[in-house]
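Sanity check. The docking grid for NAP depends on where the pocket ends up, so I'm generating a full predicted complex first rather than guessing from homology. Inputs follow.
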Amino acid sequence: MQILDGRKTSASIKDELKAKVAELKKEGKKVPHLAAVLVGEDGGSITYVNAKVKACDYVGYDSTLIRFPDSISEEELLSKVDELNNDKSIDGFIVQLPLPKHIDERKVTLAIDPAKDVDGFHPENIGRMSLGLPSFLPATPNGIMELLKRHNIQTEGKHCVIIGRSSIVGTPLSILMSRNDKHANATVTLCHSRTKNLEEICRDADILVAAIGKPYFVKENMVKDGAVVIDVGTSRLEDSSKKSGYKLAGDVAFDEVAEKCSFITPVPGGVGPMTIASLLLNTYEANKRFQSA
Ligand code: NAP
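Predicted complex below; grid placement will be based on this.
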């Protein structure tokens, strides 16, 4: 069994981008600029956004963090989105989800200019991705594809089973995995809470992706010998032995499953860092498009 080390792979992507940014600076060109909008005090969201800003600093991008209290109105947030859409100094921006209940996430996602939608959540980008046209690819699914590609893991002709059909992970990953591309071309089964015979379907997977949000859901009896297992889940479990008071748990019972598979991602240190690397790749592309527009 080999660990698919997302931290290491993400570090090499970041180093590649850092070298490209140094080149841009040398040529006197504008460096990529990512803005992140964070609403409220959700611990997970603060951690993710801080990690994104830190990654921008590392590669040499400009970054702007915009924070609002939970009480911000939908109208005020939409007005900030409009401002960012029209701010020429910013190449791409994200609005960290989830948002407070009184704000319609769909409305906010739709309001983002698709040309600046580096999270790849806008329907225009999802539609273009589905048609195989150039687009910003959703960060987590694209991070998974990049992780497989950079480890020379064959997907062509393989059976890929994805558990979880969210619009940010499972569904777009099913599209990317089944695209007509030598780094995709998998036969995909997309499972959800109404799927019957889930264990049996999972046991047939050459590549099994768990994106459910239920700690240790995937057990040894759901995995075929030699399968590649990708664990997207990140649930916070109380743990008084940790300084933070919690530990991150994946959707896969790592210790028992690891023994059976050929490759497996750890949590933390697997898919999470790849999501950030993917966001940086999208932001680099956004800057390139602006330069050539
Ligand atoms: P989500 O919106 O929470 O949806 C969960 C999905 O799992 C749904 O499609 C649901 O089915 C399915 N599901 C729930 N229980 C199930 C069961 N018993 N059997 C089969 N399917 C079941 O999903 P998400 O936003 O993709 O998040 C999933 C996990 O990934 C969370 O832990 C999240 O924190 C993590 N995540 C990590 C990253 C990262 O960068 N590492 C990025 C995004 C998300 P229904 O549709 O039928 O309800």
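Relevant for the grid: The two ends are 47 Å apart (CA to CA).
Also worth noting: The longest strand covers residues 33-39.
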